[in-house]
Amino acid sequence: MDDQLQPPVRTVWWNEDPSATPSFSLGLLDQTLLPQQVVELSLTHELAVAEAITSLRVRGAPAIGVTAAFGLALALRRIVYDYEQQGHELSLALAQEQLFRTAQLLRQTRPTAVNLAWALERMLLAAQSVLVETSSVAALVERVQMEAHTIAAEDAAACLQMGRYGASLIVDGMSLLTHCNAGALATSGLGSALAPIYTAQRQGKQLHVYVDETRPVLQGARLTAWELQRSQVPCTLITDNMAGTFMRQGKIQAIFVGADRITANGDIANKIGTYSVAVLAQAHGIPLYVVAPCSTIDLALETGDGIPIEQRDPGEVSSLGGQMIAPLGVAIANPAFDVTPHHLISAIITEKGIARSPYVQTLQQMCAISNEKVSSLDE
Ligand SMILES: CSC[C@@H](O)[C@@H](O)C(=O)COP(=O)(O)O
User: What is the CATH classification number for the domain harbouring 57?
Assistant: First the structure.
């Protein structure tokens, strides 16, 4: 009997179908088309995976980590397949080179979410470990694929745990606020920030969620509102600049957001606008909870000042729904993330538990993981 909460939607998955040519592909739900169209993609080339991450077909820190892991497995399967089609056998040296090159390609797609580099590094370490024992390309393919599946399964399990811990902070009758999308669409499970909400709902708690639209790419309006509606979680979509008013009116009792990177001191990078929400929350005495798996924690960085912030296409700001909303030639800034300092965060919830200030000790104890090697791909 499986009584576990199931994600309302599948975001990233692996296809194995002997009747298809080739028999393998990476499945993604194209998030750029939501909520108007639900289109599933089957990718068979690593370049398509890189494009999907860059253009936000798949997005959200844990989901892009899982996608990158599967992307490496896909690249290896693809090159073995191409060689077979030409009647050749792939050498181990070329297989290794393919893995490393693809890791570098995928590493460059998005800089802020550390889950991406973390997953790639873990995949390369798994590949290295099998190469010590064997010189068979088949064994390498199997090991790399297994690691990608393990990363996805661990992410799904982490979501369930974050849901349990986070739900303990939600009281029956509460009204919550969330920013961006940190739900099933951002992970390979229930989500991070939305997992406590799904769990609390399953526990029978009555709740209501205010959803920031999240300009400029509208992950709140397009994705979170869609996901919550599908899950029958009562929600109200608001524009970003309405959040303060709802807080002042006493309509919001807690805020749940995800993170793209958490540094050793508890500073977090998350979708642009999170910092403004955090400042407003403090002004109104409302707790701000950050929910993220340990794969989002970057202990190699001491503070949020060191987090690379992705600067995206100005066109995301100057147009809305395909329509220009700004005068031609106006200067535009488009940082995709901001940093919220730890003193504005009431607690950080991971799959290991609930960390509170001072984060320096608690995060280290909680997530005995190290991202020291992540930088090796930058060289
Ligand atoms: C569990 S997702 C956490 C974060 O990745 C999320 O809040 C976010 O900022 C996503 O940004 P995006 O640009 O859509 O990838």
Answer: 1.20.120.420
